[in-house]
Write a structure and sequence with these properties.
Number of helices: 5
Strand content: under 5%
Mean pLDDT: 97
Low-confidence stretches: none
Structural class: mainly alpha
Radius of gyration: 14 Å
Order of helices and strands: HHHHH
Length: about 110
Amino acid sequence: MDWNAFMAEIEGDIGTYAKEVPDTMKGFATMGAAAKKSGALDEKTKEIMALGIAIATRCDSCIGFHVRSLVRLGLTREEMCEALAMATYMGGGPSLAYSAKALKAFDIFSA
């Protein structure tokens, strides 16, 4: 999978959709900003949680978005692998496959 091309395509698709439902997208963006705001948990911890959910739900685009955020937030490869081990533990075989995809995305976005 070419993660950079995939993410460019999904961002274009989301942009097209956003033009059709601007109020929905505004609400979604507001909710996302509120959820990611640092409080008792910092943004990096919240993004790790979101990545685990993305793996469990088998959402490639969600994996891409959250892995890119984690790279931006300075997640190390060691931290990534520990988070992926937990996602694999909780989700079994399907999560193992999607954790491997997420690690590949991490390596690409970290380069």
